[in-house]
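Is this the right way to post structure tokens for a design question? Let me know if I should format differently. Anyway, here goes:
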């Protein structure tokens, strides 16, 4: 799991809601719509207009766009 202190704003993650342990992982975005400081970040649930608190989720992995430098470096190995 990724600790909240390691999350990056405006990035996408695989995450599961803490309230529903049986739920499947879903793609979420760490949103700065309410402010750029970490205390204002929310989690945007894709496919809805719902925003929840980061503490409501367990973050599994960051989703890296295929065109990112990190993805290119990993593909080259």
């Amino acid at each position: 799991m990724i600790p909240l202190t390691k999350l990056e704003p405006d990035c996408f993650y695989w995450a599961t809601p803490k309230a529903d342990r049986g739920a499947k992982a879903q793609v979420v975005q760490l949103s700065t719509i309410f402010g750029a400081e970490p205390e204002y970040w929310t989690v945007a649930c894709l496919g809805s207009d719902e925003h929840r608190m980061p503490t409501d989720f367990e973050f599994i992995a960051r989703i890296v766009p295929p065109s990112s430098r990190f993805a290119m470096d990993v593909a080259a190995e």
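Format looks fine. Someone answered above. Worth noting: The CA atoms of residues 64 and 71 lie 7 Å apart. The helical segments are 69-76.
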